[in-house]
């Protein structure tokens, strides 16, 4: 089978998939840490940006706020906790949670707590909405990818096969012409021996997301690079990796083949192709920048002031804020892509530090 088919089974198959068998995988006791795990500040800052977007749209009576890859709803809970400080915005929100895992969806109402009444829909598919803001944190990097390798005689695709009782890689002809077309449209020039991931699901998802909004904003936060960097000597072995207990093992061992379904798998997102597809669907690229500059633009620095009370707890809070913007960590490895549909060219607070990308 293609690596994309294998990855889909290993991560999402209802009985054995890594994500499907648990309500939550990240956190201090989990296999990896996300911005959401560092405390409520991340969601609170997003709420500030969403409120500005709502006002730019003319403060409509209702705003569809859609989180894709919502898990059990904890990021949306943080967003709504902060949004309550802006009653007009909070009252306008109609929340939609999009999540593949039935276990995670079942936990959403409890996780939302006092905000459960704001939940307008929960399901696997993107809802078609009118005026809205659609956001996703670390969604595209977990989508199944095709793995390819360039050889002297042309592009080859990596397949997963059985050899006795063991899963092994096999090279074969590309399973679809879309792989060649993708690389050509991205302007990628792979040298012989270079491996790469091609995330067809990600560009298809961006296309569906663009069509699901009549008017509004799309905000994506993810590991990613522009195509010129992603498909270069700097990533000649690809970016596919796995995490278990917050450690990424030596990927030359291909740990996902040894114990499939027991570890996370992720690859970096091709931001150039995501932008290209979005523009082809009528969206405007409003910003592409590092998470650090995005968060500083919407007020992260203001959160560092010392607060009275428990000094140890306050120190931990400020250390968590630092982790959100740390260069070489979440601050620069995570990129923020902001797209608009029929919204003009607003100067959002998120771009106050400039559209910086490292």
What does this structure look like?
The protein is α/β, with parallel strands linked by helices and 358 residues long. The protein is 33% helix and 25% strand. Strands 1, 2, 3, 4, 9, 12, 13 and 14 form an eight-stranded mixed β-sheet that branches. A four-stranded antiparallel β-sheet has the order 7-6-5-8. Strands 10-11 form a two-stranded antiparallel sheet. The longest helix is centred in the first third of the chain and has 16 residues, at 41-56. It is globular and about 60 Å long. The chain starts with a helix and ends in a 17-residue tail after the last strand. The mean pLDDT is 90.
Topology:
Blueprint: H1 3-12, H2 41-56, E1 63-68, H3 74-83, H4 87-92, E2 93-98, H5 102-106, H6 108-112, E3 119-123, E4 129-137, E5 146-151, E6 154-163, E7 166-172, H7 178-186, E8 195-198, H8 200-212, E9 213-225, H9 227-230, E10 241-243, H10 255-258, E11 264-266, E12 269-270, H11 271-280, E13 284-290, H12 291-297, H13 311-325, H14 330-333, E14 334-341
Parallel strand pairs: 1-2, 1-4, 2-3, 4-9, 9-12
Antiparallel strand pairs: 5-6, 5-8, 6-7, 9-14, 10-11, 13-14
